[in-house]
Write a structure and sequence with these properties.
The structure is a homotrimer of 344-residue chains. With 344 residues, chain A is an alpha/beta fold. Chain A has an eleven-stranded mixed beta sheet, covered by helices on one side. A ten-stranded parallel beta sheet of chain A has the order 6-9-12-15-18-23-26-29-32-35, with no helix packed on it. The N and C termini of chain A lie far apart (100 Å). Chains in contact: A-B, A-C, B-C. At the A-C interface, helix 2 and helix 4 of A face strand 19, strand 20, helix 3 and helix 4 of C.
């Protein structure tokens, strides 16, 4: 693809001569036939030295490079350019005779099923689905069209995946929720008889675990993106277009709204209601309901402004004790003086 | 099953006419031929509107529903009812010719082994065990009767699993512990030559990792329940009937007693002794031994009452600085006055 | 092996008569034909009661045991002894006809490939590599000589593994980084077109996830050891000989230096620079760059001395409020007295 062709496809103004582009690289490493981009001003220092053939930049940087694709949203346009250059993952095609597919499973048109996938009775796989090696699809599982299951993904029985979903390697959907009751006879398992339902265009990270519901469904709404090593307990419901970053844990029966962001390593207690457009800072511990459009931080999590104020005060805490001691001495001195004067 | 039959099997009093029951649902979603339950008073608001054919309730709610199964322990009885309705997971039966089973492995009666399981030399699998696709059982592994290994479970060499154990998908038992020594030649690996031993009726969550011991065994006692994405380091010993919630990490050589509960995302340092019946609050960081029957919270974890008191004071901290400044000014004023009077 | 032979091979002085040694055990459990060791003084209490045939000990303990191998570094020498006694894991040999290997993949001399491994086009596997069952190696993957991939390891396309690397079961390298852009049309995925590069003699724990770069590479330097359930985001770069303990999460584009130690459950924000020889305490949350040779703790992480001072003061916080109230009352009393005197 040439630079001018790319500019036309992205609808961006181009400054400089046309060249052939063979790929995309960072400012630091891109070569003269590669495109690069500047989105985070932190990396502007690389601009003067870059070898990149052309750079997607905000107008204010357009003069700083030999060839510029001028964009008001360089990161988004970089993402769009990358889609044009990205190569397809995996090379296997068709349904492998080395997969185990139960005779009554229904496989759609143009599906790809790798060797050593195991597909049980009653599974329905729609068109253009890709299922890598080592995946297990339990009885009654449904995978919507264009979805991709990377290697060793496990979908336990009755899991329902909508269209355009990406599930990264090793993720487990539909394992039993953590439900037990203590009886006189000991600890009894509560059978987990619900399922997991994943909406359209959801992405789920590597080695993430989403438990099946005890009854009804554990659900993830359309467009939500979940990172690696995340835990969603039984009967959790996550809304639409929400981001859940790596190593977050959400306890059973908690509902998370639409448009939220949960930063890395957040923990949320069970049976809570987190509203829409809520942002939760990294490592926070959420123990209470959170209203729509709130931003919270800390463990236990509080309003973010309060949290930041508390953090800002922390370095001053040791000083408190010095100030208290000084006050106590001065006051004692005054009292002594007073007493002596009274005696006099 | 009819409602009256169910009442008889559970030994519960029934109010209302008999009906046919086809399943179990939540108060919110159950239909007229489904059973439901009320265990957490938080959900009592759904009672007047439920369509459920019958509801397991505490006596105080018996009048609020059309048909009631009256229970002093609604959650336990719901669990027992669910066991009567739960359908078996998976439909594969027998030993698949698509599994790899070393000729000297011993497979018990009525065992189920899915395609693409890999079972090495010297493995012993007892009666009625179920091993799903993608599991690996290393040399010398022993799996006790009625145990279930869900897909892609890995049991490295010499792992010993007792009877009635459930291991969810992707769990890894017996990987090497994290043991190295720094020498002049660089970082040397300490071979991890012990194993992992799991007691009766233990349940282990999806993608959990339990490392083999450097010497002797990493052990989990009878009846203990471990959630998803938990980490147990080498030579950890967990007692009986202990609950370890999701994303907990326990460092090497730490011993956890019987009847404990470790809430989500707790971290415990190495070489510690945690007593029996200890409860550790969510996200706590445990850096010291804990005596029997303690409840602790915070990072570093302290006695729970102290932890809660500290949390309750936190919102008042910003106020400290205002009070200190006010005191300092007032005291300075007094001192000035005093000095002036003395001069006068 | 006899005790005297072992002493010769380790280059250690031996006290006591020669015996046959059949294995290694802990002081608590070793029998009369087993070797043991004392490295952590915490376990010295087991010395008088041990049944071990011989013990590797520091000179100060040499008189306390029947037979001693005297060492200035008992833990390192225990590790070396263990290497002499450790048995090889796994018994399968050669390339299984039950593996799927693309015809144009190149397999080195003396490689072991278990059943149900799936190896795509363009993969290069060097000599003496061991690949267990259920592993997936995507197009263009390269595995250096003597490396071991335990069961169900996933290496997505173009992952590069150097020599002598150990990857434990269920680890996923090269899944897509968590990269999206919010556009007017909704959330768009940023294709992740870089790869993962792992240096020599690295060890990676079970169920750990290391994401591929958006561009360029996510890299782990020679000799670095990563524990279980760790998350490395896209474009993270980790230096040489660094230890990353279980459940640590490192966000995208952060660089970690050489010789660092990140304790369990640490979280590090994105786009940061962590210097060489940095130590980060357990559960810390790192939100800023850290200079070489620093030790930090807490969330947000601060200099360790400051962190410890803050922790030490915490139990005194409730006292602050009592002292403040007392001061306020005393001061009010003084002021009242003053006012009365002035009136008089």
């Amino acid at each position: 693809m040439t630079l001018f062709e790319l500019a036309a496809r992205l609808g961006l103004e181009c400054r400089g001569e046309d060249i052939e582009l063979k790929g995309i690289g960072t400012l630091e490493h891109a070569g003269p036939s590669e495109l690069s981009f500047l989105a985070n001003p932190k990396y502007a220092e690389f601009l003067p030295k870059t070898q990149a053939g052309a750079v997607i930049v905000h107008p204010e940087y357009a003069d700083k490079v030999q060839r510029a694709l001028i964009s008001m949203q360089p990161y988004q346009d970089f993402g769009r350019a990358l889609q044009l250059f990205a190569k397809k993952k995996g090379v296997f095609q068709g349904v492998s005779p080395l997969a185990f597919i139960h005779p009554d499973a229904k496989i759609g048109e143009n599906a790809t099923i790798y060797p050593f996938a195991c597909i049980e009775s009653g599974v329905v796989i729609d068109d253009n689905v890709v299922i890598y090696s080592g995946c297990y699809l339990g009885p009654g599982v449904h995978v919507g069209s264009r979805s991709v299951l990377y290697p060793n993904v496990v979908l336990m029985d009755d899991t329902h995946i909508d269209e355009g979903v990406i599930i990264h390697a090793g993720a487990v959907l539909g394992a039993d929720g953590f439900g037990f009751s203590k009886t006189e006879a000991g600890i009894e398992k509560i059978p987990q008889t619900g399922n997991v339902q994943i909406g359209r265009n959801v992405e789920i990270g590597a080695n993430t675990a989403i438990d099946r519901a005890v009854l009804d469904s554990t659900t993830v709404g359309d467009g939500t993106k979940i990172d690696n090593l995340v835990q969603l307990g039984h009967n959790v419901r996550v809304g639409k277009n929400t981001f859940i970053v790596s190593q977050v844990g959400i306890s059973g029966s908690t509902h998370i709204g639409d448009g939220c962001t949960l930063a890395g390593q957040v923990g949320v207690a069970g049976h809570l209601h987190i509203g829409n457009n809520v942002t939760i800072g990294p490592q926070s511990g959420v123990a209470k309901d959170i209203a729509d459009s709130s931003t919270v931080g800390g463990s236990p999590a509080v309003d973010y402004a309060t949290f930041m104020k508390t953090l800002a005060l922390m370095p001053k805490y040791p000083d408190i004790f010095k100030r208290l001691s000084k006050l106590e001495k001065a006051l004692a001195a005054l009292e002594t003086e007073q007493n002596e004067r009274e005696k006099a």
